Amino acid sequence: MKRICSSLLLLMFSLPAMAMTGFVHTQGTQLVDGQGAPLHLRGINLGNWFEPEGYMFHFDGGPQAPREIYDLTRSLLGPDQAKVFWQKYREAYITRKDIAFLKRAGFNSVRVPIDYEFFTTDNSAGFQLLDQLVQWCQQEGIYVIIDMHDAPGGQTGANIDNAWNYPWLYSSVEEQNELVSVWTRIANRYKNNPAVLGYDLLNEPIANYPSIEKFNKDLEPVYKKVAAGIRSVDTHHVLIVGGAQWDTNFSIFGPPFDSNLMYTFHAYWMPPVKASIQKYLDFRAKNHVPIWLGESGENKDAWIAQFVNTLNANDVGWCFWPYKKMDATSSVVDFARPPHWDEIVAYAKLPQSTGNSKALEAARPPQADIDAAFAGLLKNIRYQNERVNQGYLQALGLHANAAH
């Protein structure tokens, strides 16, 4: 039996990319593909692409939210060169070769965290990148899950939502309407594309801070409002909703409000055993809906391996975080720190307000070092300079020796 299972897994991972016909959808507690066959997701998050995060650049004690990182680059490079830098960064960070490598490694899905500001018009720059990614993934037979990581007004109340340290989304009708508008625009664009599996409506809503848990009651109504907008143009794709408190608290949900709905949870830094996910398994059984792990990771390979085994044993599809980071082993690939990067990190730790301009100017690295650091970053993030973390892939149960 073990030999048969191993052969089946090898066959499953080595099949050439097949044409995606029909749409992935929910069927009771399962997710099924366009032909109705059960689909177990093995995914990775393409974090730090649309929404840079400070810790991935080792900005400990410095800028964390995307807007803070953008301000830092404008300060160091100037507004014109900063704009050029970020354009080149996004073109290089995720490429066709990365997607082909993920397929060879055994992944069948990617989750794409996005910032709504890239999708406010049909001609927004974000669509050029996302269209290209969806095309690559369709060619490789990889499903795409679009994740609203940074929503209008902020959905979390922390650095990850790129807002103002408070989840204004839930008390602002204007921001909610903007969220609906952006999601409806995205859904209208991909409504006929089966490579797009579904839409993760809000990432990690409402942090576990007592002062903002009052918004828990408002989360599902916002989900329903967004769902209505999407369903006005797209009846095909799966809608994905997560609980409050960083996608962990499912008590905020009533009965399922859509016939093609999947629930997502995130799980970090807890024992990698069944007891840690039992409440989600119970929710699945009670409501007869599929559940999916949308994020986990940032841990040792042994922990990852045990948790993947737990998820697989309980028929829970997964998507770990992240694909790529600077100088780290807790990702599929990483890249080296560029020359002079420690100077950038040291400068970034200083208070960046205009009231501290004199101290900032005194501590500013030489412009030649700044330019070399960011040029080096653009070089190191390229596919040919990535370093594969084989232990991480092995922990996920995938092909650690996949050609890169």
TrEMBL record:
<dbReference type="GO" id="GO:0030245">
    <property type="term" value="P:cellulose catabolic process"/>
</dbReference>
<dbReference type="InterPro" id="IPR050386">
    <property type="entry name" value="Glycosyl_hydrolase_5"/>
</dbReference>
<comment type="similarity">
    <text>Belongs to the glycosyl hydrolase 5 (cellulase A) family.</text>
</comment>
<protein>
    <submittedName>
        <fullName>Glycosyl hydrolase, family 5</fullName>
    </submittedName>
</protein>
<feature type="domain" description="Glycoside hydrolase family 5">
    <location>
        <begin position="91"/>
        <end position="324"/>
    </location>
</feature>
<keyword id="KW-0119">Carbohydrate metabolism</keyword>
<dbReference type="InterPro" id="IPR018087">
    <property type="entry name" value="Glyco_hydro_5_CS"/>
</dbReference>
<keyword id="KW-0136">Cellulose degradation</keyword>
<keyword id="KW-0378">Hydrolase</keyword>
<keyword id="KW-0732">Signal</keyword>
<dbReference type="GO" id="GO:0008422">
    <property type="term" value="F:beta-glucosidase activity"/>
</dbReference>
<dbReference type="InterPro" id="IPR017853">
    <property type="entry name" value="GH"/>
</dbReference>
<keyword id="KW-0624">Polysaccharide degradation</keyword>
<feature type="signal peptide">
    <location>
        <begin position="1"/>
        <end position="19"/>
    </location>
</feature>
<keyword id="KW-0326">Glycosidase</keyword>
<dbReference type="Pfam" id="PF00150">
    <property type="entry name" value="Cellulase"/>
</dbReference>
<dbReference type="GO" id="GO:0009986">
    <property type="term" value="C:cell surface"/>
</dbReference>
<dbReference type="GO" id="GO:0005576">
    <property type="term" value="C:extracellular region"/>
</dbReference>
<dbReference type="InterPro" id="IPR001547">
    <property type="entry name" value="Glyco_hydro_5"/>
</dbReference>
